[in-house]
Structures are given as C-alpha cells and as structure tokens.
Amino acid sequence: MTGPGTSIPAVDDDTLARLLTDWLPEQRWFAGKGLELTGVRITRREVFLDDPGVLVEHLLVDLEVDGRPQRYQVPIATAAELPGDRRAFPLTPEGASPVIYDGLRDPRGTESLLRHLAGQDEVGGLRFRLVPGATLPEPTWGRLLEGEQSNSSLVYGDDLMVKVFRLVQPGVNPDVELHAALADRECPAVAALRGWVELDDDDTAAGDTGAGPTTLAMAQEFMAGAADGWAMATASVRDLFAEADLLAEEVGTDF
After folding, report:
1. Integer Cα distance of 39 and 36 in angstroms
2. Which end of the chain, N or C, is less surrounded by CB atoms within 10 Å?
3. Do residues 98 and 80 make contact, with C-beta atoms less than 8 angstroms apart?
C-alpha cells in the first residue's frame, strides 16, 4: 500500500512481522534477552507522518516470549535511503530499497511528534495531551539519547524530553503519576511534567484489561546535567558499606 502524497510504499504486515522477528531481539530495550521469541503479531498500525520521501508509522506489536505475552510500541520509517544518522538500526538488509528503520531516528518523524503534542492532536487513536499551561519549544528535530535500556528518550532544544515507553504496560504509567503528583506539590528537584501520549486499547492479548487509557510516552522538562535518583541512592549505599565505621553523613555521599 502507498500513503497519499508519498511515493514510498508501506510493506505488508506479514513482511514487516518477519523483519521484526529478527530485529526486535537485537534492540537494547527488548525485555526478552536470552529467551525464545515464538510469535510476532502487529496489532495496531497507524500512519504517523506521510511526507514525500518518508512514511513514518506507529506500530503496536504483540510478542510471545517463552510463551508469555509482551507488547511493544515500534515507530518505523520507510524511505528510499537511511537518514543522516547512520545508527538508524534498519530492519531491512543492506542494499534493500526502500529501507525500513527505527522511526525515532528519522528527523521529520521526531519533529512531527512534537507538532502533534503541541496541537494536542489525535492520530489514529493516539491522543496527545498537555498539562494546562505547559510550554513547548518551536517544532524542531529531536535527538535520541543513547544510554537508555528500557525506554527511548528524545530531547528537543535544551528544555524538553519525550520518553517513549517501548514495553507497553496497560494503564497510566507510574512515571506520569509520580511526576504529576510531585508537580502538584511544587517539588523543585524533579523535572516538571509537560504532557503525555495515551491510547485506549481494549485488546486483551497482551494482558490489557481495558481499564482506561494506556500511557505510551511522557513529555517532561529536560534538566541537563541532572543525576538519576536511583543511581545516587545505590552509590550512597555502596559507599556506606565500603566505609562501615562511618556514619552516612560522614561518607560524603549521603542520599
């Protein structure tokens, strides 16, 4: 099939599922490392951006991993060639045309995500929501942070981060609830919640009970140079054990 306004064809579901079967276990955020992937099924597929030269789609993919269900969201881009970011993690083999690659590595796709968020749009069931009074930067490309394991985060400018939850769990993500609760109490030590992306999904194949919207992504203030709280806590405990004869405040890394 081909989307309107683009000459880039979208591959069929069966072909895409075969590509995903090989590609997903190689991604750092895949939660089934070392386990057998026995089934891949595309359960939702929406056109996210349809521009001349690139087609960006949003997928929900249900897997069977050692007989247990896992659901992932996988934005993909289809284009004549890879973008300037050579770490685009293509699904297709070298020399294939068109090429299919990680949609969060496509500049126009990341800019489109920010535009949808700013407009509080609805795209094929995806709802983009802003916290009242929240501000966003002008539409621009997002740069993907490289260190994360379970999620993928895009940074826009120097003050906005959008965290995409790769492994989809039903219901409101605890990150959104926690940031919203701390913001209500005007906590200055935690990045302010700006918005989120959600989806009503009644499909029970991956354990979804249909009990309200499922969070797919969270937009928050980007605090450059901020430390991870869990890393700070574990470092504090490590240093305390290393200096067992000292009190926590005497070690110098009291959490």
Report:
1. 9
2. N
3. yes
